[in-house]
Structure formats: C-alpha cells, structure tokens
Amino acid sequence: MKKIPFVASKMSVLLVVFLALTSLALAQHEMQPAGPREHGKLVEIVRKATTQYLDINSAIAAGYGPFLGCVTGQDHGAMGVHYVNGTLLSAGEIDASHPQALIYEPSKEGKMRLVGVEFIVFAQPWLTKNNNTPPVLEGQVFQYVDSPNRFNIPAFFELHVWAWRDNPQGEFVDWNNHVTCADE
C-alpha cells in the first residue's frame, strides 16, 4: 500500500510540472513581439494614411512644421524630430488617419526619414468634452503627461505609433531604441 501513494504523488508532481511548463510556454508565446508583417490594425491605418509624408516636403506642404528639435530619452532611445500640424492639434479631435505629429529621424546625409507619428490632445479640453474619460484609439489608451513638462506646454494626452520603424519595446511605447538623434 505504501507504493500506491508514492506513485500517486509522483504522478501528481509530474502533472504539476507539465502544467507549469505548458503555462510558461504559453506565456512566453504571448509576450513575443509581433513580427514585421504582423502589425496591429492601428499601425496599418497609420501607415496607409501617412505614406504621402515619407517625403518631408509633403508634410511641410500639408501644414506640419518642426517642434523643438530631436527628442532623446534620458537613459535610452529617442523619438526623433516632431513635425506638428497646428490645425490638427487645435481641433482637439482624434482620427487615426490624421495624426497631430509626424516623427522624423535625421540622417547623416541631412535627410529626414519618417519613423512614426504621435496623436496629441490637450488634457483639459479633452476631459471636459469627453466626460473625464481619457482618449482611446483602436483600443490603445493614451498616456497622460502633466504640466509642467519638458516641452513647456499644458498637460496633454499622447500616443506614439511606430508605423515606419520597428520598436523593440512595442509599437506604442514612447521611446524607440532604434531611433537616434546622433545625426541631427
């Protein structure tokens, strides 16, 4: 009789180990970043809407202009140079096809390469018009940036979309280690 409990407990241990390994494998699979052709819906919308701005001259003609300079992270990564459309920013509306800012990376040759976009709305008017609810676009919740901030502008909500440059941290993370301001 003593052998039966031992077998049962040995089987129980094997079952627990099997379940733990299965769960770990599934969790790791879920954490894997999307491959180059597995972009989310918002990234695809942004790419389609901003193809025309791959040439920075088209962005300037459409009312986008540089704001500040090349933005770098304090400890890693960068964003690039934000070209902001004042009309879209002032409107306070969110439309996946019309980002308030286009983000360019300067190159050694002096050219600017489109790497992503940023959706921006000022916090106070947005919250007043939307029952104190933060903005969400295609399931992505915007981040709140309080004032004072490094940009010296009122509190705002923002969402980065790295539609034209892979970001190892994710498609919607602010800082991108694959973007640099070294060639500004």
Essential attributes:
alpha+beta; six-stranded antiparallel beta sheet; two-stranded antiparallel ribbon
Task: Give an overview in words.
This protein is α+β, with helices and mostly antiparallel strands and 184 residues long. It folds into 2 domains: 1-32; 41-161, no CATH class. The protein is 32% helix and 26% strand. The protein is built from 5 helices and 8 strands, in the order αααββαββαββββ. The chain has helices at residues 3-31, 41-50, 56-61, 86-91, 123-129, and strands at 64-72, 78-85, 101-106, 112-122, 136-137, 140-141, 143-145, 156-161. The strands form 2 sheets. The chain has a 6-stranded antiparallel β-sheet with strand order 1-2-3-4-8-7. The chain has a two-stranded antiparallel sheet with strand order 5-6. A hairpin with a 5-residue loop joins strand 1 (64-72) and strand 2. It starts with a helix and ends in a 23-residue tail after the last strand. 25% of the residues are buried. Residues 10-37 have low confidence and may be disordered.
Following the backbone from N to C, one meets helices and strands in this order, namely HHHEEHEEHEEEE
Number of helices: 5
Q: End-to-end span in angstroms?
A: 78 Å
Form type: globular
Mean pLDDT: 84
Low-confidence stretches: 10-37
Number of domains: 2
Biggest β-sheet, characterized?
6 strands, antiparallel
| Proportion of residues in β-strands | 25-35%
